[in-house]
């Protein structure tokens, strides 16, 4: 049974760590860059022919392990109706645009943001990712990325089989500085497996999950039953979140560019390949286990099903890099920054915003990131799950050769291929006085 340290019981820990960290805070704040003016991605926009079909099947390359091919047949569901950005039916989840099995969940539970590891690779397959509404993937240093998964509305079943008395989420890992901003967007709580003394004082509304097996770095887990209880208590204490602002439409917008495959590289040892599956009408995630290793399909270890993502978003912003593993990310009060949306096998150049509007001014609460056109109108996502890859502002994107070789994908340009390359370029260090 995990040991929990709720926020209300952890404040003495935060005050103790705050005393030891106050100098570092002053130094980091004094040297952090000023918020830049909104920028537009300067990557060359490619003139491509329009895709004539939104369900073009793209065959995997021969380098993908045959064992990674999905063997299950996708279940067809009724086509959802357009909804949002402000008026949602009582049974519609404003984070997915889909009906929930139990609409009461939307009224009584707070959004939960769970820190789930991607490294070491023994953490895979992770548990519960297919049930999250949003998943944010960010660079955390030393060539690794990590997930922050948002659970709201429908939860994983509390028991997946008679042999598993309690469904668990995880592996849960440590907190990071950007988590607090994302948590405030959802007016929810985060679940972490501790955090460093440089991070914990800046986090709020968290639950710490202990690792009962110190020999296994992936040992921290949280049961679905426990998550729901914390979500219930948090909603009573924090009040209702404001989760409106996103538009959902099942039919893709016009003028998309073909996007059968997307390569996201945080590092040569952390390469992700998203491939559009026309039968599932969603993107499947493949990833290597280190430089030169074969690609493997991502599964959810909770239900043993392939991870399917309806919306893949590349979000461009600024990383603040204080040392090799201490990063913060610029997310609050952004008027307009660029983004890429991949849905239905097509790519759209869009924007994202967190600017305060009348609803923020009236309530004093923040809302989640909204995806918009250049003139501020909501850009429609596909009803379903959304995965957000957070990259550096003005990192390049381009169409490339169909390959799995890092050096080939970095160098090659092949307009019209429908295979998009999105490499992450790590930001420079921000010098702090304590290192002088």
Structural description of this entry:
The N terminus and C terminus are likely disordered. Strands 1, 2, 3, 4, 6, 7, 9, 17, 20, 21, 22 and 23 form a twelve-stranded mixed sheet that branches. Strands 10, 11, 12, 13, 16, 24 and 25 form a seven-stranded mixed sheet that branches. Helices cover 15% and strands 26% of the residues. Strand 18 and strand 19 form a beta hairpin. The longest helix is centred in the N-terminal third of the chain and has 25 residues. The protein contains six helices and 25 strands. The radius of gyration is 21 Å and the shape is globular. The protein is α+β, with helices and mostly antiparallel strands and 436 residues long. The protein has a single domain, classed as YerB-like (YerB-like fold, 3-Layer(bba) Sandwich), CATH 3.50.90.
Provide a compact summary of the structure:
This protein has helices at 7-31, 105-108, 177-186, 224-238, 358-363, 406-411, and strands at residues 4-5, 112-117, 134-141, 144-151, 168-169, 189-192, 206-209, 222-223, 257-258, 261-267, 270-277, 282-287, 296-297, 299-300, 305-306, 308-309, 311-317, 319-323, 326-329, 337-343, 346-353, 370-372, 386-392, 398-399, 419-423. The protein has 436 residues and is of the alpha+beta class.
Roughly how many Å apart are the termini?
45 Å
Shape: globular
- Global structural class: alpha+beta
User: From the 3D coordinates, which CATH architecture would you assign?
Assistant: 3-Layer(bba) Sandwich
CATH class: Alpha Beta
Q: Please, what is the CATH homologous superfamily?
A: YerB-like
Number of domains: 1
β content, as a range? 25-35%
CATH topology: YerB-like fold
Number of contiguous helices: 6
Helical fraction = 10-25%
């Amino acid at each position: 049974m995990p040991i929990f340290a709720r926020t209300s019981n952890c404040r003495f820990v935060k005050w103790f760590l705050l005393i030891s960290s106050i100098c570092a805070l002053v130094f980091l704040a004094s040297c952090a860059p000023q918020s830049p003016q909104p920028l537009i991605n300067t990557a060359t926009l490619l003139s491509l022919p329009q895709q004539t079909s939104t369900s073009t099947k793209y065959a995997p390359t021969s380098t993908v392990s045959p064992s990674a091919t999905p063997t299950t047949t996708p279940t067809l569901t009724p086509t959802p109706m357009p909804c949002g950005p402000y008026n949602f039916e009582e049974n519609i989840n404003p984070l997915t645009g889909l009906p929930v099995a139990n609409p009461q969940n939307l009224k009584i539970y707070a959004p939960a943001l769970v820190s789930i590891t991607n490294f070491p690779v023994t953490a895979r397959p992770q548990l519960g990712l297919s049930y999250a509404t949003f998943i944010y993937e960010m660079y955390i240093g030393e060539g690794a990325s990590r997930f922050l998964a948002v659970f709201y509305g429908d939860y994983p079943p509390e028991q997946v089989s008679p042999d598993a008395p309690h469904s668990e989420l995880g592996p849960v890992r440590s907190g990071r500085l950007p988590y607090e901003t994302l948590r405030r967007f959802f007016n929810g709580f985060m679940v972490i497996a501790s955090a460093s003394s440089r991070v914990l004082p800046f986090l709020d509304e968290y639950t710490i999950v202990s690792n009962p097996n110190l020999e296994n770095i992936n040992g921290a887990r949280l049961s679905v039953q426990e998550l729901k209880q914390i979500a219930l208590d948090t909603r009573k204490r924090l009040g209702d979140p404001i989760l409106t602002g996103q538009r959902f439409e099942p039919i893709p917008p016009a003028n998309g560019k073909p996007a059968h495959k997307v390569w996201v590289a945080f590092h040569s040892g952390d390469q992700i390949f998203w491939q559009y599956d026309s039968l599932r009408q969603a993107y499947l995630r493949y990833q290597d286990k280190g430089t030169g290793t074969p690609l493997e399909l991502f599964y959810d270890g909770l239900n043993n099903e392939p991870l399917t993502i309806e919306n893949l978003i590349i979000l461009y912003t600024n990383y603040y890099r204080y040392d090799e593993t201490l990063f913060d990310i610029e997310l609050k009060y952004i008027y307009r920054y660029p983004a890429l949306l991949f849905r239905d096998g097509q790519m759209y150049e869009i924007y994202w915003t967190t600017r305060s509007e009348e609803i923020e001014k009236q309530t004093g609460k923040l809302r989640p990131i909204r995806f918009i056109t250049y003139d501020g109108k909501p850009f429609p996502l596909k009803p379903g799950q959304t995965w957000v890859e957070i990259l550096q502002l003005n990192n390049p994107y381009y169409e490339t050769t169909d390959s799995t070789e890092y050096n080939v994908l970095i160098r090659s340009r092949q307009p019209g291929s429908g295979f998009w390359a999105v490499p992450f370029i790590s930001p420079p260090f921000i010098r702090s006085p304590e290192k002088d």
